[in-house]
Amino acid sequence: MALSDLVALTLLPWVWWRLIAERLQAGWSAGDLVDALLAERPQHDCTPASLRARAADALAAAERLGIAPIAWNDPDYPAHLAAIADPPTVLWLTGGREALRPPAVAIVGSRAGSPYALAVAEHLAADLAARGIVVVSGLARGVDSAAHQGALSAGGATIGVLGCGADVIYPREHRRLAAAMRAQGAILSELVPGTPPLPHFFPLRNRIISGLSRAVVVIEAGEKSGSLITARLALEQGRDVLAVPGNVLNGRNRGGHALLRDGAKVVETADDILEELQTTPLVHSRNVEQSSAAPDELLSCLPVGEPCDLDALAERSGVAVNHLLPRLLELELQGRVRRAGGGRFVRI
Predict the structure, then answer these.
(1) pLDDT reported for residue 291
(2) CA-to-CA separations, 283 to 142, 158, 287, in angstroms, rounded
(3) 85: pLDDT confidence band, cut at 50, 70 and 90?
(4) Rounded average pLDDT over 13-18
(5) What is 316-343 written as a DSSP string?
(6) Is 105:273 a contact under the CB 8 Å cutoff?
(7) How far apart are CA 35 and CA 48, in angstroms?
(8) Domain 97-281 class in CATH
(9) Which of 58, 101, 166, 267 has the most CB atoms less than 10 A away?
(10) 302 CB-contact burial (10 Å; exposed 0-12 / middle 13-18 / buried 19+)
């Protein structure tokens, strides 16, 4: 698929993005999809030619700014993210692609976090990063920035997912933090360079935060916190959701406590998170150069009727996680497997 056509798809109205993902996963070419969507749903002052011109401008701007586009069919595209129902068509990255490969855990919480919440976020992130886990968050004020800083302090990698272009750091006071993250991790966005931080982009980016991660840890979330959106999306994607208990007197963590009542695991230390993942980083840190398996051999690792996630399938097959998805997509197009939700696949 032409990268410019994939970028053109991201410039269409955001309410179409899920439909675009579904059609790409069903085997449509990006070029045909651009033409078909604009024929089905004509847009004022938008033609296939003008859309492709805007896509070319976005790619040229990215090259000038040192931003790397990673399309959904790129080998470096994170396999866990590719397995969600509506993966971004293109990711725009500044920093190192290697940050996309190790297992990741998201830490999210209040923008107006208490000193307790900020200390917990920084401590958990540092402990996870020291053990080879990539810490994912949204570069927002409060818990997010504390988590990023904790990972950096331990010499680990951290990924910030933005609700604006990867070159538009928001809030502005986090520009120095973002620079450190690029050197030691990555900044990601699904939005073309130069996109401003509009309100509706922030709930959308939450599915990327959870989609990149094996688990989501919520620290101090109020009843209407955006962190609860991330937690809900994580559950829909089949991710583990965990929460840190907080002060019951000030009401700051009512949303987090609601998650605990609903069955989220209590987190006090990084060991609680790793125990929930049932792994250690060394066990699940796979070499991307591992030998691959033919689709028929991969199929034999999928019991009929039993949904299986990427990590379990990687353990059974010995194939690196980031090599699995192309083979699973091939089997899906052949009608031999289907998606079972939550990033899982089932043999038909």
Answers:
(1) 35
(2) 32, 20, 11
(3) confident
(4) 92
(5) HH---HHHHHHHHHHHHHTTSEEEEETT
(6) yes
(7) 6
(8) alpha beta
(9) 166
(10) buried
* Token pair recorded at residue 251: 């009401």
| Domain residue limits, the chain | 1-64, 97-281, 287-347
The token pair that represents 334 in the structure block: 């052949």
Q: Using one digit for the tens of pLDDT, what is the confidence trace for 273-310?
A: 998 887 434 333 333 333 345 566 777 888 777 888 77
Q: Which residue has the tokens 């020291």?
A: 130
DSSP state for residue 293 in the 8-state scheme: -
Name the residue among 312, 330, 329, 332 with its Cα closest to residue 321: 312
pTM: 0.79
Rounded CA-CA distance 348/187 in Å is 38
In contact, 95 and 205? CB cutoff 8 Å: no
pLDDT at position 286 is 30
The C-alpha angle 318, 323, 326, rounded to 5 degrees, equals 125
**Nearest Cα to 80, choosing from 280, 206, 302, 237?**
237
Same fold for the pair 97-281 and 287-347? no
pLDDT surpassing 90 at residue 312:
no
User: Is 213 in contact with 205 (CB distance < 8 Å)?
Assistant: no
Q: Side-chain half-sphere of 224: how many Cα atoms within 13 Å?
A: 0
CA distance 86 to 2: 20
pLDDT tens-digit map of 21-34: 999 988 899 999 99
Residue among 161, 164, 206 at smallest CA distance from 187: 161
CA distances 65 to 36, 100, 111, Å, are 32, 20, 29
pLDDT at 167: 96
**Side chain identity at residue 113, one-letter code:** G
**Among candidates 42, 43, 4, 36, which has minimal Cα distance to 20?**
36
Q: What region, left, alpha or beta, does residue 115 occupy, with left being phi > 0 and alpha being psi -120 to 50 degrees?
A: alpha
- Distance, CA of 207 to CA of 124 (rounded, Å): 22
